[in-house]
Amino acid sequence: MKPFDVLVIGRSCLDYISLVNRFPGENQKTPMELRMREGGGQGGTASCCVAKLGGQVAYIGKLGDDPEGRFCLQRLEAFGVDTEFLEIVPQGKTPISYIFITKTTGARTIIYEPSTLPKIEYDSTLEALIEQSSVILLDPETTYLGKKLVRRRDKKYVTVYDCEVWREGIEDFLAGADYFIPSAEFLSVPELQLEGLSLHQQLFRLKRKIGGELIITDGEKGAYYFKDNQINQVLPPPLEIADTLGAGDVFHGAFALAISKGLDLSQAVNFSVAVASLSCREYGGRKGIPDWEEAVEVAGRLTTIRL
Questions:
Q1: Domains (ranges, CATH) in the chain?
Q2: Distance between CA 45 and CA 246 in Å, rounded?
Q3: Which of 18, 59, 160, 247 is 20–30 Å from 253 (CA)?
Q4: 8-state DSSP, 143
Q5: Secondary structure (DSSP) of 172-233
Q6: Model pTM?
Q7: How does residue 3 score in pLDDT terms, banded at 50, 70 and 90?
């Protein structure tokens, strides 16, 4: 097996994307401005991001042997993702997401099908791939693999965990992931008991639960990370936003590649904010992902403030 900069393990799906001037309320309707389809899913989009940035990336996930799965596979391969270890499940159903983008704000509303495909198993193939990778990016669908991946005593690789919601087994990642990266929405989950606290207090409380580094993504506010026991906020560049779909997935992919290339924490967060922001220039979550050179140039112009 050839070595990889990043091994991504997680979900793929097919996205049906519709652009509307405003998202309607219940019992209302609105005309559609644009319709398109694209591969989606946290793991799938993060893999495409790594590849677009020039990284060597292998993706482990599952797709059905249906037309939706074949389309998703074609899109991964078009970006240059190594799909040798992606499993096509006979008679499996590739999950579909229906996404509505509000033209005036770039915000997106997602209605998705939970996957009915079999879970990814920790087997000899996965173990061999892990040995060939410097950084492992795990999306929320893989939370159950925590004990196998982040608790290994002989672990030589770096783990980046894309945290979405509280899931069974998340304690393994809280304690053992090298980089724990949720969105700001995660701060409101009841299990953390952070309600009523200021953002500053919430971040410090969560940091005390984390064994590795904590980075928080916060949409148009950029991202937060800790340095010298202080909170740093990286502000995104001024851009005209078309679509925020997949920006979090892109952030995680960019961050995993940045770490594999030897960037330090501050550089990696700046780089990832730049990549995620630039990805919002185009509809669909993947088309706007920049190349490495553009991302580095924009990252060098970002502002960091201490809270």
A1: 4-10+42-83+116-306 (3.40.1190.20)
A2: 7
A3: 18
A4: G
A5: HHHHH-SEEEEBGGGGG-GGG--TTS-HHHHHHHHHTT-SSEEEEE-GGG-EEEEETTEEEE
A6: 0.94
A7: confident
